[in-house]
Amino acid sequence: MKNHFLSRRAVTRSAVTAVAIAATLPLVTHGVASADTSTRLPAQTVTKKLADGSSITIARTNESARINPSMGGTPLHRNAWVSGRYTLSASDPKAKVGISAGYIVGCQLTLGANSTTDGTATAKSYQDISPETATVTAKTGAGVTLGPGQAANYYITDVEYKDAFGGKANTTSVSFPGSKGRLAYTNETMMINGCAGFAQARSYAKVQVTTESASQIVDVYGKPFSIG
User: Fold this and answer.
1) Where does the sequence pass through the membrane (predicted)?
2) H or E segment at 5?
3) Which one of 50, 53, 104, 121 has the minimum C-beta count within 10 Å?
């Protein structure tokens, strides 16, 4: 993992705050969407052992979602405003950590191994969906059109930096200068169009850890919640 974009005056989007701090944090639940429905998602802390014997602790807290129909006012349109915070802490004080975070939104897909379809004839079970297998990728704040069985990957991290030639470049990975870090975001927006059936969303984070003898990416997922 490289940290050059933070050391070269990387700028995150205004809604995202990335600060190095000490760790502790939580995760997710579930809610049924209707006009202006607020969903409070539970906390989770995960500790993962790395190949060199060190470990990384990833905590998610303050996660919430507010869901309502879009200004289009039809069942085919809906919006979600999401907020949350991640705290990272590596046991090796010389380690470097980073994070890429976002949400997966599925139209008539059940997200997660513990989910089941709701009986809708066209519902599909896609239990292993990931950011890489999503149908479309977009920044939060953008609108996407999804049909049955399709999914969108909305990423909340967007860092600008100068590449080796001085040109403007972007990455979805935020790197921290040491073994601890925090990422917070507030009211990031996801706009879904065209989904006539039920829709679900779930948060995810890809955490990069680099030590003197190991480099690893750890994936963590939140619990799915309904967006209508």
Assistant:
1) none
2) helix 4-7
3) 121
Read off the pLDDT of each residue in 158-166 and give the average, rounded to a whole number: 70
| Arithmetic mean of pLDDT, 47-52 | 94
Q: How far is CA 222 from CA 29, 61, 70, 192, in A?
A: 8, 11, 24, 19
Strands 77-90 and 136-139: unpaired
Q: What is the pLDDT of residues 110-135, one digit of tens each?
A: 776 443 333 333 333 444 678 888 88
The helix/strand/coil state of 10 is coil
Instruction: Find the length of the chain.
Output: 228
Q: Which two tokens stand for residue 149?
A: 């069985």
Our CA dihedral for 54, 1, 12, 153, rounded to 10 degrees, sits at -90
Contact at 8 Å (CB) between 17 and 181? Answer: no
CA distance 22 to 54: 17
What is the sign, positive or negative, of the torsion defined by CA atoms of 111, 113, 114, 119? positive
Residue 70 has what pLDDT?
60
Burial class (CB in 10 A: 0-12, 13-18, 19+), 114: exposed
Helix, strand, or coil (residue 170): strand
pLDDT score of 10:
37
pLDDT of residue 215: 92
Tell me the pTM.
0.75
Q: Which of 194, 191, 116 minimizes the C-alpha distance to 148?
A: 194
